[in-house]
Design brief:
It is a single chain. The chain is mainly α. The protein has one domain. The protein contains 4 helices and no strands. Helix 2 packs across helix 4 (49-56). The longest helix is centred in the middle third of the chain and has 23 residues, at 14-36. It is elongated, with a radius of gyration of 15 Å. The termini are close together.
Length: 69
């Protein structure tokens, strides 16, 4: 199964596909923003620097398990 199969199953509507694309873009932007936070900001939200770096390094197609069909 390719990454596209997760977001473009045969019976999706165009609005569902658009939402999936929007979700991927949002995830990408969130990970980019996470990479920009300094140690104090990460401590404020309760995320270690190591976890933040690991999450920010994930490719955009590596989505949370609850997003998968």
């Amino acid at each position: 199964m390719s990454a596209l199969d997760l977001f473009y199953p045969a019976r999706t509507t165009s609005s569902q596909r658009n939402l999936s694309i929007f979700s991927l873009l949002t995830l990408h932007r969130s990970r980019r923003a996470l990479a920009q936070l300094d140690a104090r900001q990460l401590a404020d939200v309760g995320i270690s620097e190591q976890n933040a770096r690991a999450e920010a390094a994930q490719p955009v197609w590596n989505v949370p398990k609850n997003w998968r069909i």
